[in-house]
Amino acid sequence: MSEPSFRLPEPHVMGHRVMADEIDAYNHVNNAVYVRWLDRAAWQHSARLGISIDHCTALRRGMAVRHTRLDYLAAAMLGDQLLIATWIYDSDGRLRCSRRFEILRAADGERVLEAEVDYFCLNLDSGRPARYPAEFTSAYQPPPAVAQAYAELPDAARQLGRWPR
User: Fold this and answer.
1) Which domain holds residue 54?
2) Rounded distance, CA 128 to CA 112, Å?
3) pTM for the whole thing?
4) How is residue 155 annotated by DSSP?
5) Measuring CA to CA, how many Å separate 1 from each of 6, 41, 89, 104, 110?
6) CA geometry: angle at 82 spanning 8 and 29, to 5°?
7) Does some domain include residue 165?
8) Total structural domains in the chain?
9) Does 159 map to a domain?
């Protein structure tokens, strides 16, 4: 595969080779494993944006998952090299943001999974929603090219978690 065919521009991409402990009794990656990969990619991307886990704990603020939509499109198998991409595509600049994820198999470019996760800012002391600290406001804004490309996606590509697709 020459250039990955992600739906949105400017992805944060994490590579991953499927390991034996990620395979289930059906000889493919267990569905729960994908969620761990998405979480790891989101943390890597956040750190690149200047919001590491250590920074969150120091601020006593973090982003918590509110809603997740996953479409499993193809099975990943033992040894597959995967490209796990993420983008922030929406944010209210105060409390909430949404991420898009795509997983492609590097060998053939096949789309294995698409997901969207909605987050809210959490006060780590009270466990209640809280306004973004200034660092979150700037870091968790979608790049204009990403927001525009997301808005221009066909409806079917923005209707994750709905059957049929």
Assistant:
1) 14-154
2) 35
3) 0.94
4) H
5) 13, 21, 26, 11, 10
6) 120
7) no
8) 1
9) no
Q: Residue 26: which CATH number?
A: 3.10.129.10
- Report how far residue 110's alpha carbon sits from residue 41's, in angstroms, rounded to the nearest whole number: 19
pLDDT, mean of each 10-residue run, the chain (165 residues): 82 98 96 97 98 97 96 96 98 97 97 97 98 96 97 87 63
Q: Is residue 5 part of a domain?
A: no
Tell me how far apart the alpha carbons of residues 51 and 39 are, in angstroms, rounded to a whole number: 14
CB 73 within 8 A of CB 114: yes
On whether the CB atoms of residues 132 and 140 are closer than 8 A, the answer is yes
The pLDDT assigned to 2 comes to: 53
Instruction: Tell me the H-state helices in 18-151.
Output: 31-48, 53-59, 134-139, 144-151
